[in-house]
Amino acid sequence: MKIFSMKPGQDGAVALIDTDTATLEWSYEAEKDSFPRYDVFNPALLMDCARQLDTLPDVVAVSGWAKGGFAANSDIGSGYYGFDGAKNISKNISFFGNTVRYFSSSHLRSHIMSAYAMSPFPQGKACYALVWEGAMGDFYLVDEEVNISHLGTVMITPGNKYGFLYALADPTFRLPKGKQRLGDAGKLMALEEAISNLEAHIPEMAAGATPVAYFRALAAGHTVLQVQGTNVPALDADGTTRIVATAKPRRKVTVGKVVKVRRLNISAWVMRPDPMAPAKARLNPIIRQTGSRL
To answer: Domain Carbamoyltransferase spans what residues (predicted)?
Structure first.
């Protein structure tokens, strides 16, 4: 049996699997051949795949997705959410005048099943799975019968949060409110190790002028101030000032407590404790019921 499987939305892809020989015949990604990164499944890719087939497939599979993002009420195929298989679609359809089997499983379930299939565990051995992506950050249990159950949520929209934090500190970020760059979340996740490698080879980085410290300063609720010049101590005697990145201001844009700059060069960012922190600590519990935060 040959399965022709397509993945819609960002990072579009298509693959052909022969179950009789347990072989992945081929797999193509939409962004290859100089198409844009994260590109969707496109007509050029469809034509390339058609040339590889000498007959129609037995099964056409569509990975679940959602129109316009993560909306739960605008499904493509089995949609984005759902882990237990209740939203799976399996039925006969007409495909270029021939009857084939149509199958679709949710995007979430595809995450789990793909991880399980590529894991070192043999089928029939129970294991845990962590889904960590733009919209979902949850633990699941895959039992001996490959039934999936939800164990708990670690973080809601982890990828979006990581991407937002990276963009907040990036002076080149230009997208409008509510928009993100798909590559930013992964950059932030890799930042700690990347900076550690840089610090091992660049003395100035080891002295404290690191983007990692900048992100830690933001996370701790500090006010970030821009200071001209390079002769700024990495740490004051009282330990309250720290260089956290290097930058030369061209045009300042204030975003909350953060001053963003347009061009990186030889000046320095320093971080000091937020003087309003004690007052905010007292007020936040009072206003939290409104969903706001200072």
So the answer is: 104-193
Residue 119: count of CB within 10 angstroms of its CB: 13
Residuewise pLDDT in 10s, the chain (294 residues):
999 999 998 889 999 999 999 999 999 999 988 888 899 988 988 999 999 999 999 999 999 999 876 666 789 999 999 999 999 999 999 999 999 999 999 999 999 999 999 999 998 999 999 999 989 999 999 999 999 999 999 999 999 999 998 888 888 888 988 888 988 998 888 887 776 776 676 554 555 544 555 555 545 544 444 443 333 334 334 444 444 443 333 344 343 444 343 333 323 344 444 555 565 555 555 545 444 443
Cα distances (Å, whole numbers) of residue 41 to 14, 46, 73, 245: 8, 8, 22, 39
Q: Any idea which residue has 């995007």 for tokens?
A: 107
Report yes or no on whether pTM surpasses 0.70. Answer: no
